[in-house]
Design a protein that fits this description.
Shape: globular
Strand content: 25-35%
Number of helices: 11
Distance between the termini: 15 Å
Radius of gyration: 16 Å
Strand order of the largest sheet: 1-4-5-6-7-10-11-12
Structural class: alpha/beta
Helix content: 25-40%
Number of strands: 12
Largest sheet: 8 strands, parallel, barrel
Oligomer: single chain
Length: 245
């Protein structure tokens, strides 16, 4: 399992939110570059980055920051937020981003997802963000009646191979991952896709839970900034030699 430390950007600053509420933005680091380099020095190979302003405005806002990290660190950048068109996908991927996350567009215009996957394969991931099991969009400001597992199955049919699943009620709360929903998603899509857990990670026990579920990856944000999880320890725990049958 891979560990993806996270940097969310709002107004050019590294922040974390509480349950996706933009009004709760808390700056958690002075420098995005120093933070990213610190993650790399701790052994991370990937970084999960989100353009919060982009998610809200439905277009890229902080692109220079993400491209800077991709260019000047050894980290592979997984990026979401404000990616609503094939032109934006192409721009990011051609300029050094390793994987882009399509979220709102998967719900509202799945044809774009199909076309992106046909062109870029596993460099496309879909973000499934849910409140009470129902998918939310547009920076989590819009709710829907679409079940998160139903959307995953539709996206698998479209060719998507990687999902980032976030329980919005857990995000930024340090209350533990939603093992029940993650397990249900894993069971429903077993062998058909890679699942990355996001939201609620608190301690090394959450890493262990996700690893034992056979997930592809786990995103760690506030737990790293608040010191309840050590990145080096998390990466070590995620390694195959630590797995139990």
């Amino acid at each position: 399992m891979i560990i993806l430390p996270a940097i969310d950007i709002k107004d050019g600053k590294c922040v974390r939110l509480w349950k996706g509420d933009f009004q709760t933005a808390e700056q958690v680091a002075e420098s995005y570059m120093d933070t990213a380099q610190g993650f790399a020095e701790a052994g991370a190979q990937w970084i999960h980055m989100v353009d919060l302003d982009g998610a809200k405005s439905a277009q890229p806002v902080n692109a220079d920051i993400f491209l800077d990290v991709a260019k000047h660190t050894p980290l592979k950048v997984e990026l979401g937020g404000g990616i609503r068109s094939l032109d934006t996908v192409e721009s990011y991927l051609s300029e050094g981003i390793s994987r882009v996350i399509l979220g709102s567009i998967a719900l509202k215009n799945p044809q774009i997802v199909k076309e992106a996957v046909a062109e870029y394969g596993d460099r496309i991931a879909v973000g499934i963000d849910a409140k009470n099991g129902k998918v939310a969009a547009e920076g989590w400001l819009d709710d829907s009646d679409v079940d998160y597992i139903a959307l995953a199955r539709e996206m698998i049919r479209a060719g998507v191979g990687t999902f980032i699943f976030t329980d919005i009620s857990k995000d930024g709360t340090l209350s533990g991952v939603n093992a029940e929903q993650l397990s249900a998603l894993a069971d429903a899509t077993r062998g058909q896709c890679n699942i990355i857990a996001s939201g609620g990670v608190h301690t090394i026990e959450d890493i262990r839970i996700c690893r034992e579920m056979g997930l592809y990856g786990t995103i760690c944000g506030k737990s790293l900034y608040k010191g309840t999880l050590d990145l080096r320890e998390a990466i070590a725990e995620a390694q195959p030699e630590n797995q139990t049958d």
